Amino acid sequence: MRGWERIFKDKLVVLSLAIVASVLVAGVCAPWLAPHDPEEVHMELRYAGASWAYWLGNDHLGRCIMSRLIYGIRPSILWVLAALGASVAWGAVIGLLAGYFRGRIDSLLMRVCDVVLSFPGYVMTLALVGILGVGLENILLAFILTKWAWFARAIRTAVMSYAEADYVKYARTLGIGHVQIIWRHLVPVTMPAIAVIASSAFGSMVLQMSGFSFLGLGVQAPQPEWGMMLSEAREVMFSRPEMMLAPGIAIMVVVSAINFLSDALQTALDPKLAASRRQAPGQPTARDAEVRGKEVA
Question: pLDDT tens across 64-77, in order?
Fold first, then answer.
């Protein structure tokens, strides 16, 4: 519990958690929070500035920027979170099977992981989007097909360190089924690894979704999305640079908050990392010694 108590005593982490939670709630409640229809066009309000009716002004078609920003949370954050959950679930099943049964099953599944991980993640996702076609659904499917291997590798490593533990061997001796052993004894010990990797992958997936939409490969008009809003404002970035502020700041703030939470979560769940960060300033940490050792080697 000390690690979790240390998390909630950090003001920056609490602020980051509040930001992420608020954004998720705003995305779920978008129909009630958005002041206007995000796709409603008002050409007479084209590039209008902020007002009481339109707090963030209007875009090149007179649409409410604030409403589009709120609705843009759904593809930018909520759907990415859903794809992350599917990737974690798939990777967890593969990692648990490979780490528990070993042998041929482990070799076969890990060779498949090696094939997936042999390509850079962003390039692999871009190739799948090119094959499947543009659109939100295809990007989410590409995320699932490329991200699961990272989780499978990490979960397999965690399972292998516990699969031969005495309490697991005792459960086998008692005749308890494999599924029950995996669910009761191995799934709980893999949760810290899953939480750390998932939180770090979340931020990169949000950036990739915005990047693909910015390039015109993701969410298509008139559906709002933060990266696409940046792309639409690119045409007037010199004459009206304020049009890029709202989506740009939103992406920066949310991804930064996710990264801060990921670092705090890793510190709380990794005792070695927490101990190294508690060392006196100026003293080399265990991580520093490891890096220096690799450099010398």
Answer: 999 999 999 999 99
